[in-house]
Design brief:
Layout: H1 17-40, H2 46-51, H3 58-69, H4 72-85, H5 91-114, H6 119-127, H7 131-163, H8 168-221, H9 224-232, E1 243-245, E2 251-253, H10 277-294, H11 296-303, H12 308-321, H13 324-339, H14 341-344, H15 349-356, H16 366-374, H17 379-414, H18 420-446, H19 453-464, H20 466-477, H21 483-505, H22 522-529, H23 533-554, H24 582-588, H25 603-606, H26 612-621, H27 627-635, H28 641-651, H29 656-679
Antiparallel strand pairs: 1-2
Helix pairs in contact: 1-8, 1-17, 3-8, 3-11, 3-12, 3-17, 4-7, 4-13, 5-10, 5-12, 5-29, 6-7, 7-8, 7-17, 7-18, 7-19, 8-13, 8-17, 8-18, 10-20, 10-23, 11-17, 12-29, 13-16, 17-18, 19-21, 19-23, 20-21, 20-23, 21-23
């Protein structure tokens, strides 16, 4: 297909009425799944809403891990990066396969044995005090806004705007509000059980739809070998290109195709839009540990599993699904560069503004372009539904997890002994606040100096997450880590991360080939341009870890009786764990474990003669207006410390044959990942 066939993007891509019928049918089907699962789940208890009553099967757990990870940012970002630089971006997906094994075999056993709801809650139990828990809660929410919600909203907005032929920002934000409303229905009304089951349905839809588009795109370029040959020469025409002068004085295209586009391992001095091989083994691996092993959105899926075997099996299933993005997203992105070399590969600021509204480049439209030009009527609507499925899978997961963090780790700092009803209402209400802040950040993303959305996401992650990775690894694996060491390590690492964050986003960087002068101070140019964000993430990890270790060795160690089932080495202990003080002992009890006191059930809330408005609120939030039902939801089962310790240790036990089978499948998954990395090295 000639790239000049469509002179103005979207001129031949209006949706047919059949496409709209498909979209409406999709939403109706997913809404039914969400409503049914939410009605069956125990939404009137904290464990039921936030952890799906810890009764999820390994298949929906694994599917939810994958769907929570693959949002619309991946469809836009991975395909766009594939169009810009080739296969190297798929190393993030290969890397995740190994980190998922760390999650299932190292971190989840500790979290389950500790009996926690959230990651900040684990740090509170591990180190004592409140400052680490509160700081990590706030940092996690900031990361959600910067790297997850706003990026997914931007990606979804870009797709909807171009697919539906919308112009200006009004129509764009109206579409986003509709998507947010539907996502909020799942999260606010259903809790984690509804989120996981809708993720399961949407994972199937995402795989089928993207598989169909992969086949269509490869067929359009003439097959795999033709794709490789075509990508080598997929440079835009001169009028669509900008040029710069390199150190040798040669005139170079800003959108030139690299010779190593089919290789995973790139030179150490690769630019910020590329991935140096040293960064793959350091910064990428470090930020991935935070994302998969210490981030509430992901870990909460595994904590909802009915037992340890189901949690591990879910991680293994997710690891096999992580092979798909290389073929379903990255290769089609490269095909888009071949088919539409001028539109997707443009680097001239004026031409790019005309084509996609971004002066820094248009690689982010690669996947959208394929959908609108290659898919037939009806299928086009299905793919739009796939994109919205990815967006909502990611959003519903993030909304549920962020409301969990705010409710359990921040709100309880201001309210002593809140009732289950209060926690549930606050958690659902906080979602609205989070959405507003995320929408306000979207304009910042559009002005980021790189045209690759995935580069933006990974850069932010490497500025703010390596500090968290260091503290979690030391907390889980080294008993000698103390609260002062962890806190001040976090503070020093956070200060260094914010420094790079401010310098990166505080100055305007002209697009490649632009005549606009770069007015940044020289030290900023060297600090930002010469230190790759993956390398900087590794430096942050080392600095945080060193500070934590040194200060921990200088302070009094934590008594061993306070660490039972809080480290990897004590996860199977049946000893009773004692809190750091009476306040912590009360705080560590989850709401379902606290004694039912008179103030736990507010008479004003559970009185029989509630008005119609309150009945509607109760129905949305899953709160029964029957006082007896609410008391039972709060009370559940009260156990002694000895019973809790024995039950926690027993929870980690696995059937020998099941354990062996899961281990074999895990090793096979990692072996396949090594083969793929070696094949494309």
């Amino acid at each position: 297909m000639d790239s000049e066939a469509v002179s103005e993007f979207g001129s031949s891509s209006s949706l047919h009425w059949v496409d709209y019928v498909v979209i409406v049918g999709y939403f109706a089907a997913v809404l039914v799944v969400g409503i049914i699962s939410s009605m069956k789940s125990k939404r009137d208890s904290v464990a039921g809403y936030f952890l799906a009553s810890r009764n999820m099967h390994w298949i929906p757990v694994g599917a939810s891990l994958f769907a929570s990870n693959i949002g619309s940012g991946h469809f836009i970002g991975l395909a766009g990066s594939g169009a810009a630089s080739g296969l190297v971006i798929a190393t993030f997906e290969m890397n995740a396969i190994f980190v998922l094994m760390l999650l299932g075999w190292i971190f989840v056993p500790v979290y389950m044995a500790a009996g926690v709801y959230t990651m900040p809650e684990y740090l509170r139990a591990r180190f004592g005090g409140q400052r680490i828990r509160v700081f990590l809660s706030v940092l996690a929410l900031l990361l959600y806004v910067f790297t997850k919600i706003s990026a997914d909203l931007y990606a979804g907005a870009l797709f909807i705007k171009l697919a539906m032929g919308l112009e200006g920002e009004t129509g764009l934000y109206m579409s986003i509000l509709v998507l947010l409303g539907i996502a909020a229905v799942f999260t606010i009304g259903g809790g984690l059980s509804a989120v996981i089951w809708t993720d399961f349905v949407q994972t199937i839809l995402m795989v089928i739809g993207s598989l169909a588009l992969m086949v269509k795109s490869l067929s359009a370029v003439g097959g795999y070998e033709a794709l490789l040959d075509g990508f080598k020469n997929a440079e835009p025409d001169p009028e669509f290109s900008s040029f710069y002068t390199n150190e040798q004085g040669d005139n170079m295209s800003c959108s030139g195709v690299q010779e190593n586009f089919m290789h995973f391992f790139r030179p150490v001095d690769a630019g910020s839009g590329d991935l140096p091989w040293t960064g793959l083994a350091t910064g990428m691996f470090i930020s991935s540990i935070w994302y998969w092993c210490a981030d509430q959105v992901i870990v909460q899926r595994t904590l909802s599993a009915k037992n340890m075997s189901h949690a591990k099996a879910g991680c293994v299933l997710a690891s096999y699904l992580k092979f798909l993005p290389l073929f379903l997203l990255v290769l089609p992105g490269m095909a888009a560069r071949v088919l539409y070399r001028n539109e997707v590969g443009c680097s001239d600021p004026d031409q790019c503004m005309r084509i996609c509204g971004s002066a820094s480049g248009c690689t982010n439209i690669a996947y959208v372009k394929l959908v609108l030009d290659l898919m037939p009527t009806g299928a086009r609507g299905m793919m739009l539904a796939v994109m919205m499925a990815a967006l909502m899978s990611s959003l519903t997961s993030i909304f549920n997890s962020s409301s969990t963090i705010f409710t359990m780790d921040v709100w309880t700092r201001f309210r002593n002994n809140p009732s289950d009803t209060e926690l549930l209402v606050v958690g659902r209400s906080f979602v609205i606040v989070l959405v507003g802040v995320s929408i306000a950040w979207i304009p910042i993303i559009t002005k980021f100096n790189s045209s690759q959305l995935f580069v933006y996401i990974q850069a932010i992650s490497n500025f703010l997450s390596p500090q968290v990775t260091a503290v979690f690894l030391l907390g889980v694996l080294w008993e000698r880590t103390t609260e002062p060491g962890a806190f001040w390590g976090l503070m020093i690492g956070f200060a260094l991360g914010i420094l790079r964050f401010v310098l990166e986003f505080g100055y305007f960087i002209p697009p490649c080939g632009s005549t606009i002068p770069d007015e940044r101070p020289n030290f900023v140019k060297h600090f930002v341009d010469d230190i790759h964000y993956l390398h900087y993430g590794a430096l942050l990890f080392i600095a945080t870890g060193m500070c934590t270790i040194i200060i921990s060795l200088m302070t009094r160690p934590i008594n061993k009786n306070k660490l039972y089932r809080l480290t990897f080495w004590t996860r199977n202990s049946k000893q009773v764990r004692y809190g750091f003080d009476d306040e912590q002992e009360t705080d560590l009890q989850t709401p379902k474990e606290k004694e039912v006191e008179e103030d736990k059930v507010d008479d004003d809330i559970v009185k029989e003669d509630v008005n119609c408005l309150m009945k509607m609120v109760y129905m949305i939030c899953g709160i029964s207006d029957d006082k007896k039902v609410n008391v039972e939801a709060v009370e559940e089962v009260k156990k002694t410390r000895e019973e809790e310790a024995a039950e926690a240790a027993e929870f980690l036990q696995e059937e020998p044959w099941t354990k062996f089978s899961i281990n074999v499948l895990a090793v096979l998954s990692m072996t396949l990942a090594v083969f793929v990395c070696g094949f494309y090295a």
